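Subject: sequence -> structure tokens, single chain

Hey, anyone have a minute? Need the predicted structure for the following. Not urgent.
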Amino acid sequence: MKLVLASSNPGKLREIRALLSSFAEVVPQQELAISEAEEPHATFLENALAKARHASRAAGLPALADDSGLCVEALGGEPGVHSAYYAGREGSREERDARNNERLLSQVKDRRSAYYACVMVFLHHPDDPRPLVAEGVWRGEIARVPRGSNGFGYDPLFYLRDIGKTAAELAPEHKNRISHRGIALRKLLGLLNDEA
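Reply:
Had a minute. Here:
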């Protein structure tokens, strides 16, 4: 199967391609000159659907999209759907990630419980009336200082107490096995296999 991935995030592309390597040929939307969709919605599900429909319509292919983010309970679920641009839209992805992490550290006080959430959507075509939807949640807490150089986004601050490491200190294969995105994608693959 050939599908378009409705994301321009190189970190997501790496993770999703690794997880889908034996199932599908994943073509990133930027390779097809497809712009990123607007994400104006208040939920991960609505944003993922908007991205998948946009990419599928533009590519004429089945589409896979996820919307994901870090949710800090003491901050009322923030940054949540605003995770990518929590500290503004200016600069490169790496600069935004650094600013987002700085802002998060300035906001979090003693209650550091957090989780990553991912909603993954697959559409057979842009007007698919029955999109396949899967969710993954990965629980952890916010570290006091960033650690590690793997991963992207908030991974240097997402601390896994039972492992004693941040997500950015994990090998990519380990992270893919236990992360919110890995969990959601495995559930989605189960739904796709049930259709076959």
